[in-house]
């Protein structure tokens, strides 16, 4: 199965600053990469699919890039509601697999 | 707006079968794919498998020997059975909807914590 590795595990950022999260696949997943946000006690929320296409209702402060094996999620200006855990997930090959997550915390 | 709600026993004994149902409201179960995904406490996400409304399924090979996912279109529900459970199966179990077999789910249930313990 394709292993997804996210870094860093924890990212400490001040409100208003930019956050850059990385996701690496053990083999190419083309652009079949999604990002999710998860807050405590809640289900994951789809942010981005196709590596760079925002889901309905997701603000433009979230952007995704990359293809093949290297991907990035950028949050341009962190708001209080953006502090959460973020997961990447490949859907190029079965079984669909998730990364281990990056926790974005308040600095 | 479609809503998904998981239901079933919250406590299951080791070696027994975990059974959960996801009820879909605000939309039809037809023409979509439906998945079960789980998350052990404090850990990451694992895809269990999915079913198309017509009944075709695909399971994670790591769980395939123990998993059955079924659908009841008359009740707008789909279900998960996981047999021979151990403490490692303790997790929050989510049901989710997606438009294609492997497309990311846009709608999720709130999740239900199932604990395996004697």
List the SSEs and their pairings.
The complex is a heterodimer of chains A (107) and B (118).
Chain A: E1 4-7, E2 10-13, E3 19-25, E4 33-38, E5 45-49, E6 53-54, E7 62-67, E8 70-75, E9 85-90, E10 97-98, E11 102-106
Chain B: E1 3-7, E2 11-12, E3 18-25, E4 33-39, E5 46-52, E6 57-59, E7 67-72, E8 77-82, E9 91-98, E10 107-108, E11 112-116
Parallel strand pairs in B: 2-11
Antiparallel strand pairs in B: 1-3, 3-8, 4-5, 4-9, 5-6, 7-8, 9-10, 9-11
Outline of this structure?
The complex is a heterodimer of chains A (107) and B (118). By secondary structure, chain A is mostly beta strands.
Please, could you describe this protein's structure?
The complex is a heterodimer of chains A (about 110) and B (about 120). Chain A has about 110 residues and is an all-beta fold. Chain A is built from no helices and eleven strands. In chain A, strands 2, 4, 5, 6, 9, 10 and 11 form a seven-stranded mixed sheet that branches. A four-stranded antiparallel sheet of chain A has the order 1-3-8-7, with no helix packed on it. Chain B is mainly β and about 120 residues long. Chain B is built from no helices and eleven strands. Chain B has strands at about 5, 10, 20-25, 35-40, 45-50, 55-60, 65-70, 75-80, 90-100, 105-110, 110-115. In chain B, strands 2, 4, 5, 6, 9, 10 and 11 form a seven-stranded mixed sheet that branches. Chain B is globular, with a radius of gyration of 13 Å. Chain B starts with a strand and ends with a strand. The mean pLDDT of chain B is about 95. The chains are: A mainly beta (about 110), B mainly beta (about 120).
Largest sheet of chain A: 7 strands, mixed
Poorly predicted regions of chain B: none
Strand content of chain A: over 45%
Total beta strand runs of chain B: 11
Task: Name the shape of chain B in a single word.
Answer: globular
Main beta-sheet annotation of chain B:
7 strands, mixed
Radius of gyration of chain B: 13 Å
Tell me which protein chains meet in the greatest interface and how many residues each side has.
Answer: A-B, 24 and 19 residues
Oligomer: heterodimer
Strand content of chain B: over 45%
> In terms of structural class, how would the helical and strand content of chain A be classed?
mainly beta
Order of helices and strands of chain A: EEEEEEEEEEE
End-to-end gap of chain A: 35 Å
């Amino acid at each position: 199965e394709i292993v997804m590795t996210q870094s860093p595990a924890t990212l400490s950022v001040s409100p208003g600053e930019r956050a850059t999260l990385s996701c690496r696949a053990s083999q190419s997943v083309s652009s079949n990469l999604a990002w999710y946000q998860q807050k405590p006690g809640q289900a994951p929320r789809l942010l981005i699919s196709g590596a760079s296409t925002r889901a309905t209702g997701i603000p433009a402060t979230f952007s995704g890039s990359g293809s093949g094996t290297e991907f990035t999620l950028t949050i341009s200006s962190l708001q209080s509601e953006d502090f959460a855990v973020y997961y990447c997930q490949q859907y190029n090959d079965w079984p669909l697999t998730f990364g281990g997550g990056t926790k974005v915390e308040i600095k | 707006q479609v809503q998904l709600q998981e239901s079933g026993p919250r406590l299951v004994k080791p070696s027994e079968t975990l059974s959960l149902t996801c009820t879909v409201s605000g939309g039809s179960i037809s023409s979509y794919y439906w998945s079960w995904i789980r998350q052990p406490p404090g850990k990451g996400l694992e895809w269990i498998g999915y079913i198309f409304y017509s009944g075709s399924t695909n399971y994670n090979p790591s769980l395939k020997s123990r998993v059955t996912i079924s659908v009841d279109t008359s009740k707008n529900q789909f279900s998960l059975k996981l047999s021979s459970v151990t403490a490692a199966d303790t997790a929050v179990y989510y049901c989710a909807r997606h438009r294609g077999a492997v497309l990311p789910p846009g709608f999720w249930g709130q999740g239900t914590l199932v604990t395996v313990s004697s």
